[in-house]
């Protein structure tokens, strides 16, 4: 299937372009809490909706991380972005690594926010049933969001996150891409890649923990830095937006 130019918002007019890729549970509105605090003169951020999400909810596709990477490159081409950095949250971190492998000469820097490692995510049987059932069961989505944020955030926030996820995703695409981001292993291909990488992890994340980041990302990228947020779980853009923006923009401007 041909690559697709993704719906997007462009924030800022700086020379340093940055493609921003959302996670499994949300579309580009997942980054609403950070947008007001971005340096718009230094950077030009492009927030996309992947196929099956947001404004691309009805766009058909295979719903794989490789397809998503091709779509990101097509979007960059449509905007005339020869070189750019990447920011990926959760599943978006796996997709960003596929972009890096497909076009290494175009990627300046890579930021992963609670990112899925290049090895994918192994699930035990019970956890797999919870995640696989989330496509059709909102209560599964809420349980996952609650657990990965440390079972410590308000019910109203959990309800809003769950509602946004259900309303902004196509359930079939949501289910299909789970197989891809969890079951894809490209760690041998990225091992030793010299691209500067920033990994942002939440101390309260019970899934993609700081320890997982140390055992995966920090082993495979020799120029990687790890930032751990004591007051965040899996959703740093919502939980610690100011601290997240400050750290990312310091890294991008290095």
TrEMBL record:
Residues 17-238 form the AB hydrolase-1 domain. GO terms for molecular function: hydrolase activity. Pfam families: Abhydrolase_1. Keywords: Hydrolase. InterPro entries: AB_hydrolase_1 (IPR000073), AB_hydrolase_fold (IPR029058), AB_hydrolase_sf (IPR050266). This is Alpha/beta hydrolase.
